[in-house]
Amino acid sequence: MALFRISTKRVLEVQKISSTNLLRPLSDASTDLKKVLNEKVPQEQERVKAFRKSHGSTKVGDVTVDMMYGGMRGIKGLVWEPSVLDPEEGIRFRGKSIPECQKLLPKAPGGAEPLPEGLFWLLITGDVPTDAQVKAISQEWAARSSLPSHVVKTLNDLPKNIHPMTQFSAAITLLNSESEFVKAYGSGVHKSKYWESVYEDSMNLIAKLPGVAATIYRNTYKDGKGLGSVDSGKDWSWNFANMLGYDNPQFIELLRLYLTIHSDHEGGNVSAHTTHLVGSALSDPYLSFAAGMNGLAGPLHGLANQEVLVWLQKLRAKVGDNPSDEKLKDFIWSTLKSGQVVPGYGHAVLRKTDPRYTCQREFALKHLPEDSLFKLVSQVYKVVPPILLETGKVKNPWPNVDAHSGVLLQYYGMKEMNYYTVLFGVSRALGVLASLVWDRALGLPIERPKSLSTDLLIKAVKA
């Protein structure tokens, strides 16, 4: 078989074509998501089966020693259906860019930002949903949202000095007691039906996450008081904001945007890959997602937006709210020369300004253009990239999503930085659980790459 390589750009082009094909009208306008998937799964199973039969031995890339020691960066070794990250164009959800999703996905009455329910429908089916289909998901998640009493009791009994992400992971793990997949697997269900109970678990988990996250927030920061309730007539983000204790319509709009854009970033990032890996052992969605959240809690992943704010506070204390560009440059050079990085700048894959940063900036320009912290972030955006390019050591000098999200949350009164990663986790469930359903629908096996010691690697290279 001849060796050939598929570029990321070509993968994106193929995904766009596939997405266009997937956007054919359904045979009916069903608002039952599981019924829609029941129609799609057999078709996709046959498509993948035929593709593997004809191209199973085709090589799609090479692996270098640097890739192996560099965290497997750039190795093409995963199948991930919901999204693809292109270095130049940024994330595409089923072939659609963030601006396209903002335009095409249904919105709340009077709202301007896409509803996360619509993005989930897109991620799991490949179809842009109708207003009725999104409303059905909102109602279904509201109906599934109640928490088991033992989970609520555990959260209420936890010491309040335990990090919110630790509480979040623990609660998700405890929800495993409700797993439909565990019951189905124990009853001997055929593997071709695994996806159905994984779907049920995923829908239940997504529905319950706002309640878990809001309970953690109210317990940790508000003495356990003021936890709002779920309104079956409202959308997922509205209910989440209400449970958190926020009723500002702009904050609710921000939450809709935040939960949409943080949902997925293809399969190689730590939280996504971990969820996929643990799920490949047929751990249920609760255990798989809890493992992914333990990865998200790391400072090199989901904790990064908090680190951006800490750095901005140091910057603000040093140069004030309206510094000259020269003062700002001096502080940035001082940061770099001390061996530190400018948090929120650079990305493992992207080679341009993160589209997730851009849409948050547009939100700020619309709703809080005179906010002093936003103005400082904008000035940093102007000053930092040329400095990073001047060092000659940075491939991507542009800001990523973390460089902006914390500033918006601060503006609307959510100043508890330790909690921000929990919000990220609620959002990330949409992408990783949509993928987990397809992992089981396509019958993907347990993941088990081959590892080598340094001695064996040296021998292999010499050979």
Beta-strand percentage range: under 5%
H/E series:
HHHEEHHHHHHHHHHHHHHHHHH
Give the helix/strand class: mainly alpha
User: End-to-end distance, in Å?
Assistant: 22 Å
The count of helical stretches stands at 21
- Residue ranges: pLDDT <50 for 5 or more in a row? 1-12, 17-27
**Major sheet, described briefly?**
2 strands, antiparallel
Q: What oligomeric state is this?
A: single chain
Return the average pLDDT rounded to an integer: 91
Subcellular location: Mitochondrion matrix
Keywords: Transferase, Tricarboxylic acid cycle
InterPro entries: Citrate_synth-like_lrg_a-sub, Citrate_synth-like_sm_a-sub, Citrate_synthase, Citrate_synthase_AS, Citrate_synthase_euk, Citrate_synthase_sf
GO molecular function, one term: citrate synthase activity
What's the structural blueprint in terms of helices and strands?
Elements: H1 8-22, H2 33-55, H3 65-69, E1 83-86, E2 90-93, H4 98-104, H5 116-125, H6 131-143, H7 149-157, H8 164-174, H9 180-186, H10 194-221, H11 236-244, H12 249-261, H13 270-280, H14 285-296, H15 304-319, H16 325-337, H17 355-367, H18 372-391, H19 402-411, H20 420-441, H21 454-462
Antiparallel strand pairs: 1-2
Helix pairs in contact: 5-20, 6-10, 7-10, 8-10, 8-14, 9-10, 10-11, 10-20, 12-17, 12-20, 13-14, 13-20, 14-20, 15-19, 16-18, 17-19
